[in-house]
Amino acid sequence: MAKLYIVATPIGNLEDITFRAIKTLKEVDFIICEDTRVTKFLLNHFGIEKPFIVANAFNETKTIERIIDKINSGENAALVSDAGTPAISDPGTRLVNAAVKNSIEVIGIPGANAAILALSISGLPTDSFVFEGFLPQKKGRQKKLLHLSEEERTIVLYESTYRIEKLILELNQYIPERQIVIARELTKKFEEVWRGKPSDILSSLKDKILKGEFVVIIAPKDFIM
To answer: Which homologous superfamily is 3-109 in?
Structure first.
């Protein structure tokens, strides 16, 4: 029986890919990706050429049946996201569920993950944490922030270039005394990390051009550095 491999890829620095990931990508029959341009750049770097099926947030549901049919016909597949581990705040969960329902073996190939990397360098408690990914953009956002203000575990959030300043302003409103760590462009050339209370970080980011992807780590309620 052919298999579905869930392959983690680098979040920035291409040297972070594992030997096992390279071996798997070389051996599968086709690769499922979010954006062929991004994945081709990675594969070209390692001299790998494979056919693609694009499955992203917009068409994932429509492509699942085709992917399952190909695997059932004997073709091994690898699922990758643009960066990091598939299905973690990225497409992939529906495909994995479909594979399981069709008795297809799903094998994970571990590697880079921005949330875990940011946690490891945060200096905040990591024995218990909650991963919230991206907060709702509009409906339910304030309710979620209010709920998180009472959270007794470390909180991990993702945020985009376009909303990071808004998020910090909201954290300054809901949890002004909480310690936070913000990591930008992890493993990349312009990697930066800011630490402090929301007001401290707002001051640090003043006049900076905030580009890239951000991981926000929030200390537990009543935590003291």
So the answer is: Tetrapyrrole methylase, N-terminal domain (3.40.1010.10)
